[in-house]
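Run log, item B.
One chain of 147 residues. Sequence copied directly from the ordering sheet:
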Amino acid sequence: MNRPILFAVICFLSFSFISCDKNDSPDPTNTDYIIKAAWKFDKAMSGGADVSGFLNACYKDNVMTFQANGNGSLDEGATKCNAGDPQTTNFTWNFTNNGSTLNVTGGIFAGQSGSFTVITLNDNQMVLEGTISSPTGPVTGQIHFKH
């Protein structure tokens, strides 16, 4: 094989290996995941038990949407808890502690606001843990959401 052809093959193979190994796109952040699509209720857990059956149906069809600018909206879905409530309410949000805490002002699921520990947040699941108001008093629990 003559030198110019051999040189061209080596250059081509070197370029191919370099371009395949390099990943220019950064890993998704929690902000990327949370704003990707609307979130719907999946289940509620407390003390390792599924407590979804204790929640009013009017909360289970709510849809939350988070925007990159720190605003969000909660749509009541087809079933409202109180007929006079607005169909959509707004809230603000932000992450702290390197994305491990979600802070919400204005209420998200079942009107809850405050700080929630992010247990899971990925392409299709969000699990938040926090103290939640219940008819028997405050309870620590997890709320699972999905797209």
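Observations after the first pass:
- The domain at 28-146 is CATH 2.40.128.540 (Lipocalin).
- Residues 15 and 21 are 10 Å apart (CA to CA).
Flagged for discussion on Thursday.
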